[in-house]
């Protein structure tokens, strides 16, 4: 599978299965695709940057994308940088480590 095809599949999956990102003023971007290993790096930003459930959304993408797309073996999810990125509250970073959110499954 080509990198372009893998990127298209990933973009389509996120648009169709995680519409909340865009519906709530956020965005995602595919930052890197390794077609040989199947590793994909996705960044979320915009309104996601200040959202309290962003860590859970990131975790869900990280785990569900490889389960649902055969050609994806691993997903790295990060926060987008650049002019469209908002500053993440420090509490959000703390939430990523909280035990309560390790098994949280957002409704998508």
Automatic annotation (TrEMBL):
An individual GO BP term: iron-sulfur cluster assembly
Organism domain of life: Archaea
GO terms for MF: iron ion binding; iron-sulfur cluster binding
Location of the NIF system FeS cluster assembly NifU C-terminal domain: 19-75
Start and end residues of each stretch annotated as Disordered: 89-108
Protein name, per record: Thioredoxin-like protein
Organism: Haloferax mucosum ATCC BAA-1512
């Amino acid at each position: 599978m080509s990198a372009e095809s893998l990127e298209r599949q990933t973009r389509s999956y996120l648009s169709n299965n995680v519409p909340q990102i865009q519906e709530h003023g956020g965005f995602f971007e595919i930052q890197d695709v390794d077609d040989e290993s199947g590793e994909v790096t996705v960044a979320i930003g915009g309104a996601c940057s200040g959202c309290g459930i962003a860590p859970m959304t990131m975790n869900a993408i990280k785990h569900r994308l490889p389960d649902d797309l055969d050609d994806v073996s691993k997903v790295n999810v990060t926060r987008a940088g650049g002019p469209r990125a908002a500053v993440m509250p420090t509490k959000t970073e703390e939430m990523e480590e909280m035990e309560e959110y390790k098994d949280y499954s957002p409704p998508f």
